Amino acid sequence: MAVQFFSADARVPALPKTKLKSFINELFIQEGKILEELGYIFCSDEYLLKINQQFLQHDYYTDIITFDISERKRSVKGEIYISVDRVKDNARQLGETAFNEFLRVIFHGALHLSGYMDKTKSQQKMMRDKEDYYLSKFHR
What we know:
Blueprint: E1 3-7, H1 17-30, E2 34-43, H2 45-56, E3 64-68, E4 75-83, H3 84-94, H4 98-113, H5 121-139
Parallel strand pairs: 1-2, 2-4
Antiparallel strand pairs: 3-4
């Protein structure tokens, strides 16, 4: 499969990787994209902070950073870095399970690679609606 999961952090909850890989491929098909290669890397706050500083010149913690390295317009090739610390912290603050919050962030990164942004209020609403849609679809 074109989707791979890597973990530098043992605190990632057990994810149904086979189901997720297939579902992510279907997400891209539904969004009109062709999945070539996608790596999800689960890491610590400190690791992701260094990436944020080095590549984006941002000096703050974040839950996810998505790198689009696609070479063709409709194709998807990328790397998605996810902070286990931030996702677990966000889940606690939102009263959500860590499992669902990890799914949301996983789909969030895929949606970025599908062309969705989240800088403005309307973009954030569209992104949240899409995340909710795919979360609901995944749990069916």
